[in-house]
Amino acid sequence: MAAPQGNRGRRQRDDRPKEQSDLVEKVVFINRCAKVVKGGRRFSFSALIVTGDKAGKVGCGFGKANEVSEAIRKASEAAKKAMVKVAVLKSTIPHEAYGEFGGGKVLLKPASPGTGVIAGGGVRAVLEAVGIRDVLAKSMGSSNHANVVKATLTALGQLRTRQDRLIERGFAPAAALHA
Q1: Buried/exposed code over 20-36 (b: 16+ C-beta within 10 A; e: otherwise)
Q2: Using one digit for the tens of pLDDT, what is the confidence trace for 26-70?
């Protein structure tokens, strides 16, 4: 007898485990671009997304498409691929950090518990996605969302914990500190 055609026959159960994602996605900026064509205007969209696990990992992604939802999806995938680990000390950062990217400049300072995230726009989105709850930030120079987010990631990439510094300088065996 021939195999069933189309939708006939038994349904196949999908026993593959569903990917449980505890990632936080924040839309930083959506840009609409218009192209003038013979029939009028044709719009396209770009999206800047920050993704983090609130436990020290964060990434940013940029996506372009003719629809907002598709641009967000593309940016989200790019952000997940670009995630990096950041040194976090309890609920703040271990020390001051300064990052530049293009014209965007960002200064981050550690804050005492209970201060909150004193930052705006793209800087706030990155810091909340990383899981930092107490920090002071100042965005200087360009207000371009992409450059500010990338400058923040550059600043966070410079952070090192005390143990990391000791290992770099050769004062402590790596195995003893991570035990």
Answers
A1: eeebbbbebbeeeeeee
A2: 999 999 999 999 999 999 999 999 999 999 999 999 999 999 999
The span from the CA of 161 to the CA of 158, in Å, is 10
Strand 135-141 relative to strand 84-85, pairing: unpaired
The domain that holds 99 is classified in CATH as 3.30.230.10
Range(s) of the domain holding residue 107: 87-164
76 with 126, same domain: the answer is no
Higher pLDDT, 176 or 20: 176
In whole angstroms, what is the distance from residue 145 CA to residue 122 CA? 6
Please report whether residue 1 resides in a domain: no
Same domain, 91 and 156: yes
pTM, to two decimals: 0.81
- Three-state DSSP at 21 gives coil
- Give me the sign of the Cα torsion angle 135, 140, 145, 146: negative
